[in-house]
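Hi U.,

Before I forget, here's the chain from the pilot set. I'm dumping it here mostly so it's searchable later in email.
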Amino acid sequence: MEYSLFTKLAAEFFGTAILMIFGNGSVANVELKNTKGHHAGWLNIAMGYGFGVMFPVLMFGAVSGAHINPAMTLAQAINGLFPWNEVLPYIIAQLLGAALGQFIVYLTYWPHYKETEDPEAILGTFCTTDAHNDKANYFLNEMFGTLVLVFGALCCLSLPWGKQDYAAASIVVGFIVWGLVTSMGGPTGPGLNPARDLMPRLLHAILPIPSKGSSRWGEAWIPVVAPIVGAIIGCWMFVFFFGA
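Structure:
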């Protein structure tokens, strides 16, 4: 069934919002003071992001493809897998969805934002940073992480077994994200998604949060550009090796 562009954009909007609620919501639960999950650990965050991707793909994959990521949309268009006339609307829907999801996290965790005095902990619930303050490492980590994500997701969802059992493929994509956060997520978070970093970083800059510190705009281009580069390469690899 072919859905209207409006329906596809609604799917991208709500799917990206759900990604943020599960993903950055899990970070807030771990990092912010006096939450029930305070110091629950990295696996809690990895699980949140894995489910944050898995559920939108299950819910909306058959509607819009559940890109929920501007890097995925651009990469597919550049490699001939997605129509260019839908790229900008998709990205706008994803950006707005990311903003909504992050704002919901902010609202639900507001008492804990007020109690948290560590600006790095607060920033981590919004966007990524490099643990070693190394921009080159930041770029490489986000690039290779997104490359693996996009290549893996396309292999799962587009090869015959995934097309025959889309639900199973969607679950595997969630586990890819879960695994990436546990394996390659140490240096940067990771973001792997321009919308997931840019819009929350913008909200961090404008929302009234005590002790929030800097939004670190000097490095904000990295989690936008690096995932796009990685996604383009990952998508090209899928098309080159398995596209036939």
